[in-house]
TrEMBL record:
GO terms for molecular function: transferase activity. The lineage of its organism: Bacteria, Pseudomonadati, Pseudomonadota, Gammaproteobacteria, Lysobacterales. InterPro entries: Glyco_trans_2-like, Nucleotide-diphossugar_trans. Residues 48-213 form the Glycosyltransferase 2-like domain. PANTHER family: GLYCOSYLTRANSFERASE, SLR1566 PROTEIN. The keyword Transmembrane helix applies. It comes from the Bacteria. It comes from Dyella psychrodurans. The chain crosses the membrane at residues 274-297, 304-323, 329-355. Keywords: Membrane, Transferase, Transmembrane, Transmembrane helix. This is Glycosyltransferase.
Length: 369
């Protein structure tokens, strides 16, 4: 076996073992906040919850019920973003909840950011909780989040939601979605003072209202499709400290269930994540081929098959902490390469949409290139 073949056989093993040994541990689930069962009735009078809602009648009641169990003094503003269903009517039945009727979407704005911009004008408290309309907080979560924010002296803290897993496709793809997000935005680096990486999960963000204002939110990022990470970047650049973690107490109510629905969620921003760069897309494709495809090829090489085994074992080992965190069996690690192929295909689909003139499509709105 020649030197070139040995080098090729070593590439995936070096990639996966290197990932496991990386000091920032992108595969780890150590950055987390869980609900405090002993929180009781916490004083949350310093927080206003800002919820953009467009046609969310099926979930908004559960979201608002979850907020009422968090503590006392919490104020809630629901911005009804031109809904055609009963979103506003349902929201108006909850105590301490103000419904703001959203104005038509101006040119150059993303819908969610325009709704948040309108709601921000009504916030009078030192802190703002940005919460998606399909996110339910478990009792004690907001108290734990607030305590962490104060203890760690952060001005911006966010939590990635626990995505519903009700089908085979959910279990195959949704934990992997979080896994890949952590590889792309290592939490430990994002949570450090380094400005190399700034990341957030837009479903649940607790931020100082002053930090929002100084960062120019939301007008300064009005056309951003990956609004959470863009906001984290703006806040970090303004000199504030950010933090991002996982939580099982932030529950997504959004049902997926099929490959098609997960595809729509991923494809709306995947190519945006790559900066609309065809060159980067090609690089990512090659990296996926080396990381997920080449180990199986190497297994068939008589003199180097052990390197293929090392690569596959390290690959699956890197995924096990995520599976353990979400209470899934280790057997799902065997299907990680299948999920990788599907995610790569969704990224190419996102790119094809862009080349056809569509930046994104979401909530019955199309954002053109």
């Amino acid at each position: 076996m020649g030197t070139l073949e040995w080098v090729a056989a070593s590439i995936p093993a070096v990639m996966w073992v290197g990932l496991l040994l990386a000091p920032w541990r992108p595969w780890s689930t150590r950055e987390r906040i869980e609900p405090d069962p002993h929180a009781g009735s916490a004083d949350l009078s310093e927080i206003t919850v800002l919820i953009p809602a467009r046609n969310e009648a099926d979930v908004i009641g559960l979201t608002l019920s979850g907020l009422q169990s968090q503590g006392s003094g919490l104020q809630v503003i629901v911005v009804d973003d031109q809904s055609s269903d009963a979103t506003a009517q349902i929201a108006s039945t909850f105590a301490n909840t103000r419904v703001v009727s959203g104005q038509p979407l101006p040119e150059g704005w993303a819908g969610k950011l325009w709704a948040l911009e309108q709601g921000k004008a009504h916030v009078r408290t030192p802190m703002t909780l940005l919460l998606d309309a399909d996110i339910q907080l478990q009792p004690g979560l907001l108290a734990a989040l607030l305590a962490h924010k104060r203890r760690d002296n952060r001005q911006f803290v966010s939590l990635m939601a626990d995505l519903r897993r009700t089908s085979f496709w959910d279990r195959l793809l949704l934990p992997a979605f979080v896994y890949y997000f952590k590889l792309l935005y290592p939490f430990s680096i994002s949570n450090s003072d380094s400005r190399l990486i700034a990341a957030a999960a837009g479903g649940c963000i607790l931020v100082d209202t002053e930090a929002l204002q100084r960062a120019g939110a939301f007008a300064s990022l009005r056309n951003a499709l990956i609004d959470d990470c863009t906001l984290a970047r703006q806040v970090k650049n303004a000199g504030y400290r950010t933090w991002l973690g996982l939580s099982r107490g932030v529950v997504s109510l959004r049902p997926y269930g099929t490959v098609g629905s997960i595809h729509d969620m991923v494809a709306r921003s995947a190519f945006t994540q790559l900066g609309y760069s065809t060159a980067i897309l090609l690089v990512v494709t090659v990296l996926f081929a080396l990381a997920y495809g080449l180990p199986f090829v190497v297994l068939g090489w008589p003199e180097a098959w052990r390197l293929g085994v090392i690569a596959l074992v390290a690959m699956m080992a890197s995924y096990l902490p995520m599976l353990r965190y979400y209470g899934m069996t280790f057997a799902w690690a065997l299907l990680l390469p299948v999920g990788a192929v599907l995610y790569l295909g969704m990224t190419w689909s996102s790119a094809i949409r862009y080349w056809r003139g569509v930046r994104s499509r979401w909530k019955d709105r199309t954002y053109s290139t």
